[in-house]
Amino acid sequence: MYYNNNFNRYDEALESADKAIEINPEYGLAWLLKGYVLLNIANISEAEFSFENAIS
């Protein structure tokens, strides 16, 4: 996920994060990375939701 995010492959990074979350919804790192991706594509409200899930 991190690799795809660094090379502006946000769609692939988001897909990877979603798969990880589907497998384990409690996986905070996946939520955190999803939040970063969403922040990079200016989807602020969904990024905030992802960050909140990362710390809960």
Automatic annotation (TrEMBL):
It comes from the Archaea. Gene3D superfamilies: Tetratricopeptide repeat domain (1.25.40.10). Pfam families: TPR_17 (PF13431). InterPro entries: TPR-like_helical_dom_sf (IPR011990). This is Tetratricopeptide repeat-containing protein.
